[in-house]
Specification:
Distance between the termini: 58 Å
Low-confidence stretches: none
Shape: globular
Mean pLDDT: 94
Number of strands: 13
Oligomer: single chain
Radius of gyration: 23 Å
CATH class of the largest domain: Alpha Beta
CATH superfamily of the largest domain: Alpha/Beta hydrolase fold, catalytic domain
Length: 518
């Protein structure tokens, strides 16, 4: 072993002086995790039984108890889905093409990271719902590793894997299915409720406080969070919520869900009076059929007592009226859809004309007045974001504020990633890494400024989980949001509060009809 000056210069490689494997007794049996430095990680813990075979399309059931010690050392399977394309720089940056648990319907598991199981602490609990819309992703995707946040923030981090696509959101009730299938259009959301029930029952054994649970998610995870806020069975299972670039105001109607279910049955050549045959179809065939008829279109369907109405339309949900909320977007969220990063002004104008017709010139002039030197591809991404993602943020925050029962805060992430020579700007998902304090993430490229930005957002996350208020020592004073002031925390090198941030642009889009998704 090195000693003296050398010992201060190299990483020690002596004996490990801490227990390597740790055990926690849960409601269903003992699980074994592994110490990863200062954090203990437990992976692939079942919070519900397998959703395969006769359990397909049905609400989640309790897992079977086990005897002895169950290893919780590796990620469980992801729900069957279309894998990410590794040719995309964006997919590579967020590791969306990497699946560490394989695929299968025995996918109802979660991961837990905790600083300690020995000190009887009651730490805030951060429960993450993964992104990927309602069709892709997993709680075990690389970007959701909770070890760094657990250590930096002294919190317990939980990530959840659940059903997706037709496996979680197929509206069979509307096509004549038997009563047992009435929740088939929302089983993916009911999985999240089951995971939160598991947290309430078990998280104290991992050093967490079940009375201080923050649910949050970005993109599809934010949309799921929006839905859970409107679910009667989720009431009381969490105390704060955060939605990042996923402000879902309206979910799928029963009629729209019925059309998609009918198409899938036709593709599989299954009659409506023989619905149970769907449970015998190999998942590989079901996945191929859903991608053919629905693309990325399967999502939660309203109309049952599990999700009786739209999440935030016509008003904020009464089910979570007492839950403080944090809502956000990034400046160029829509850059994830770009294929070209070399637009000249002529091509930029042509793209606007193709999408907005006679409004294009006014839009170009409006944005160039605010951003005269911004690269055209990033300005295009900002326009698409302002007309889409950001409108949802404003609606969700305004309706939560109007409810007047619990506070709401709003932020916008404007700090651009230095990755890929800055071509992505403040792209969709950049704040996921910050909320996990994942400073090694490629969005931050190891930069000192990136570490500072992660400290700022992660500080807000820890404070919000702990107290229901995101104000913390890393940030200036952060007022709540209301329709008069519209106070917004702008996360940038100069992180600051701005009232009605870019209000002229906001007002323009509010005067326009809703935009189709890119």
């Amino acid at each position: 072993m090195a000693s003296g000056v050398l010992a201060s210069l190299v990483t020690p490689r002596g004996p490990v002086d801490r227990p390597l494997f740790r055990e926690v007794d849960t409601s269903y049996g003992v699980v074994q995790g592994i110490s990863t430095g200062p954090v203990v990680a437990f992976k692939g813990i079942p919070y519900a039984a397998s959703a395969a075979g006769a359990a397909r399309f049905l609400p989640p059931q309790k897992p079977e108890a086990w005897t002895g010690v169950r290893e919780a050392l590796a990620a469980g399977p992801a729900c069957p889905q279309l894998p990410g394309d590794p040719r995309s720089d964006y997919a590579r940056t967020i590791y969306w093409d990497v699946n560490v648990g394989g695929y299968g319907e025995d996918c109802l598991s979660l991961n837990v990271w905790t600083p300690s199981i020995d000190d009887d602490a009651k730490r805030p609990v951060l429960v993450s719902f993964h992104g990927g819309g309602f069709m892709t992703g997993s709680g075990s995707n690389v970007g959701y590793d909770g070890a760094e946040m657990a250590h930096w923030g002294d919190v317990v981090v939980v990530t959840v894997t659940h059903r997706l696509g037709s496996f979680g959101y197929l509206n069979l009730a509307a096509v004549g299915a038997p009563e047992e299938f009435r929740y088939a259009g929302v089983t993916g959301l009911l999985d999240l409720v089951a995971a939160l029930e598991w947290v309430q029952d078990n998280i104290a054994g991992f050093g967490g406080d079940p009375s201080r649970v923050l649910i949050f998610g970005q993109s599809g995870g934010g949309a799921k969070t929006s839905c859970v806020l409107a679910m009667p069975p989720a009431r009381g299972l969490f105390q704060r919520a955060a939605v990042q670039s996923g402000s879902l105001v309206r979910a799928t109607t029963e009629e729209a869900g019925a059309k998609l279910a009918t198409k899938l049955l036709r593709e599989l050549d299954i009659e409506a009076n023989n619905i149970r045959e769907l449970q015998n179809v190999p998942w590989q065939r079901l996945l191929a059929a859903q991608l053919k008829v629905g693309g990325m279109g399967f999502s939660p369907v309203i109309g049952t007592d599990a999700l009786p109405h739209h999440p935030f339309d016509p008003e904020a949900p009464a089910e979570s009226a007492n839950v403080p909320l944090l809502v956000s977007s990034t400046l160029e969220d829509a850059a994830l859809s770009l294929r070209r990063f070399d637009l000249d002004e002529e091509t930029f104008a042509a793209a606007l004309g193709e999408r907005y017709g006679e409004r294009a010139r006014d839009i170009q002039e409006l944005y160039r007045r605010h951003e005269p030197d911004k690269p055209a591809h990033l300005l295009l991404a900002q326009i698409f974001t302002d007309s889409g993602f950001r409108r949802g943020v404003h609606v969700q925050a305004e309706r939560k504020a109007a409810q007047g029962t619990a506070p709401v805060w709003v932020y916008e992430w404007d700090w651009p990633t230095p990755a890929y020579e800055g071509k992505f700007g403040a792209i969709h998902g950049i704040d996921v890494a910050a909320s996990f304090h994942a400073v090694r993430d490629t969005f931050f490229a190891g930069s000192n400024e990136g570490k500072l930005m992660a400290d700022r957002l992660a500080g807000a996350w820890v404070a919000f989980a702990a107290t229901g208020d995101p104000n913390c020592e890393q940030l200036p004073d952060w007022p709540t949001y209301d329709a008069d002031r519209r106070a917004t925390m702008v996360f940038d090198a100069d992180t600051r509060v701005v009232d009605d941030h870019r209000g002229e642009i906001r007002r323009y889009w509010e005067s326009q009809p809703p935009e189709p998704r890119i």
